[in-house]
Write a structure and sequence with these properties.
The complex is a heterodimer. By secondary structure, chain A is α/β, with parallel strands linked by helices. Chain A is built from 14 helices and 8 strands. The longest helix of chain B is centred in the C-terminal third of the chain and has 23 residues. Classes of the chains: A alpha/beta, B alpha/beta. At the A-B interface, α5, α6, α7, α8 and α9 of A face α4, α5, α7, α8 and α9 of B.
Chain lengths: 359, 314
């Protein structure tokens, strides 16, 4: 089975990642491709950009205006994903009840924004299983530092779930159920005992048992999750996968992109493209003598804008195979509602500028 | 009364959507407090420190460094903070080397969500509340350049969440103290930063109630950054987008600036209804040519110190 192409958009907050990745997906679908769009931005505002009121974790089919292709968009919601994974396994009612009452499960599904970044990696592989006819999968990531979790956490999660400590914690629960006097002593070797005693000194025995119970209840689900993580992780390295770094004209966003490039390169991945969003159309002429103060103000503003754009492009040169700029699309953030055609136009523009990089 | 007097709390979280200028506002606040002879620290938690390069210095790490406007800054590392917690705070170096540095435990720490967040809050507690007793030195003010909105706000609930996992012992105490500190309105304040644009304003309106609920108190201030309002720029207020702006090849850039006043009023009206103070900060790029980030921070810190501020004649 051939895998769909993976397009991953990364960047600092506020550079327009969500809109740009949505626009890119719309444009691909409109030219006849079968596209999935996955947002893990916890601010969950993709529906706004697509004009759909209720994007779910399962995904919603969005009509393309060319009538060709297919666009299915979803916003990752940890609670919905976890619940679906539990139901898939056909667990008995008692276990499900126990699981939903487990404080870890509760915390993971509702309280921790950072858990979402890990679940996203699982969701990517699941999405590919569910929609095998898909040609492209577009991923919008969390802003800044949290997108790094999305890249590096899958590996770290796999390491932990395969680790001895995970085994020990499960044994601990099995033993505590037998209500033996010294729960650490029974099935565990001395080294393992010491570590568990240490952990229970820091957080208490109860905490460890809750955690072990969580691992046991989720055993099958975690196994599937680890397998999916492995699939996603390998997929990151596939030759068809594209990492797109998005920045604004501010040089601080270029420094974030540079840091992403460094992290990716340490994993032998070279980002395909840097996109400078909301750039000026052409270079600005020297401020002219002008009658109106307001005109002077704007010419000053433009000159500053240009200066900032130049230094951003300078930083980005070394970060990816190609650097492209996208102009300000004024209708994209006007007071009136965003339209699908506007998104498509932006996406077309991005694909045109990127050329062969985003085929 | 000056804005700074309104912020009497020692620990100040600067919250906002990515790209709205949280770091700029954090450092402007820090500069302003430093000018009042306060000992100020800006805590960042980011890929690379963005404040030191503004002053031509290399990015800092977890150890605090002094910046030219006489405030300190650091970039949080959870690895370092975990070591500090066990070695400096609990005074249990042995536990750290035997337990935390164990390869199996390291795998757990790297994988479990919420761990870094918890130690981040623990470090803030230490910096804002405990250093005095332990080392005789103390910051007058700890300003937190909080991670972007969703993750930043979820931070406020993390200690309570972890506390419910059934923990006891030192970690439970830590969670309890952190929760106490965050929920104490005389010690902790949060301020929001937004741009006068559609999405940042809407995110503010979505997250202010969430943050207030988790902390048990309302934000002290909403800063509207990069304002082009008539108070700062009377020349722009007179215009109804004449010919020059409509026909210019970069008219879409101008149109964005003109739209800011609409969103600024929208934000102000919403905040007023909720009884939350707002403070507009001028877009310095509209006033001065070749303006550096250093200069922007300096000008904004001046604005914060005054009741009213206007740019001189251009």
């Amino acid at each position: 089975m051939t895998k769909p192409r993976l397009h991953i958009f990364l960047g600092a907050g506020g550079v327009g990642k969500t809109t740009l990745s949505a626009a890119f997906a719309v444009s691909l679908a409109n030219s006849g491709r079968h596209v999935g769009l996955l947002s893990i931005d916890p601010a969950r505002r993709l529906q706004q950009a697509l004009g759909v009121q209720h994007l779910s974790d399962e995904g919603v089919l969005i009509p393309t205006h060319s009538g060709k292709g297919e666009l299915r968009a979803c916003v990752l919601q940890a609670e919905q994903s976890l619940t679906r994974w539990v139901e898939e396994k056909g667990m008995d009612a008692e276990s499900i009840e126990k699981l939903f009452a487990n404080p870890y499960f509760h915390a993971l599904s509702e309280k921790m924004a950072s858990a979402t970044d890990v679940l996203a990696a699982v969701r990517i592989a699941e999405w590919a299983e569910q929609h095998s006819h898909m040609t492209d999968l577009v991923i919008d990531t969390a802003p800044g530092i949290h997108a790094v979790d999305f890249i590096v956490k899958p590996e770290k999660m796999m390491l932990f779930l395969d680790s001895k400590l995970a085994e020990w914690l499960k044994l601990l629960v099995v033993d505590s159920r037998k209500k033996k006097q010294n729960i650490f002593a029974r099935v565990l070797k001395t080294g393992a005992q010491k570590i568990l005693e240490g952990l229970s000194f820091v957080g208490g025995k109860h905490f460890l048992i809750n955690f072990g119970e969580f691992l046991i209840l989720l055993d099958e689900i975690l196994l599937t999750a680890v397998n999916r993580l492995k699939v996603t992780h390998q997929w990151f390295f596939h030759s068809s996968t594209r990492f797109v770094l998005v920045t604004s004209v501010r040089s601080s966003t270029a420094l974030v992109a540079k840091e992403f490039a460094r992290i990716l390169k340490s994993k032998n991945i070279v980002p395909s493209l840097c996109v400078v969003n909301r750039a000026l159309n052409s270079s600005v002429a020297e401020p002219q003598k002008s009658a109106l103060n307001a005109e002077k103000i704007f010419l000053t503003y433009l000159a500053n804008y240009q200066e900032s754009q130049n230094s951003t492009c300078q930083i980005l040169k070394a970060c990816a195979q190609k650097v492209v700029t996208l102009p300000v699309f004024s209708h994209l953030d006007s007071q009136t509602q965003l339209r699908m055609q506007d998104l498509c136009l932006l996406g077309d523009h991005l694909r045109h500028n990127a050329g062969d990089i985003l085929p | 009364m000056s804005l700074l007097k309104e912020l009497s709390q020692k620990l100040i979280f600067v919250v906002g959507k990515g790209g709205v200028g949280r770091s700029t506002v954090s450092s402007a606040l820090a500069s302003a407090f430093a000018k009042e002879n306060e000992h100020v620290l800006v805590v960042q938690w980011t890929l690379t420190d963005s404040l030191s390069p503004v002053y031509g210095l290399p990015p800092c790490g977890h150890q605090a460094v002094l910046l030219p406007p006489q405030f300190m800054t650091m970039n949080f590392s959870s690895h370092e903070a975990i070591r500090e917690y066990f070695v400096d705070h609990l005074k249990m170096k042995w536990l750290h080397s035997f337990l935390i540095e164990n390869k199996h435990v390291q795998k757990l720490l790297h994988a479990a969500p919420g761990i870094s967040e918890l130690f981040f809050l623990g470090r803030l507690l230490w910096l804002a509340d405990l250093t005095q007793n332990n080392k005789g030195r103390c910051y007058d003010r700890v300003i937190v350049d909080t991670p972007a909105m969703g993750h930043g706000v979820s931070l406020f609930g993390i200690a309570q969440t972890v506390a419910r996992l059934g923990i006891t012992g030192p970690l439970a105490q830590e969670c309890e103290r952190v929760t106490h500190l965050l929920q104490n309105p005389t010690k902790t304040a949060h301020v929001f930063v937004t741009l006068a644009e559609e999405l940042p304003v809407e995110e503010c309106m979505e997250f202010i109630p969430k943050a207030s609920h988790l902390l048990g108190h309302a934000p002290k201030m909403v800063f509207i950054n990069q304002s082009a309002n008539e108070h700062f720029f009377p020349d722009l207020a007179l215009l109804e987008q004449p010919e020059f702006f409509r026909t210019h090849e970069n008219s879409s850039v101008f149109a964005q600036v003109f739209r800011r006043n609409f969103f600024e009023s929208h934000m102000k009206a919403w905040a007023k209804e909720k009884n939350i103070a707002t403070c507009s900060l001028p877009d310095v790029n509209l006033a001065h040519a070749n303006v550096s980030q250093e200069r922007i921070t300096h000008i904004l810190s001046e604005v914060l110190k005054k009741d009213s501020f206007q740019f001189g004649a251009l």
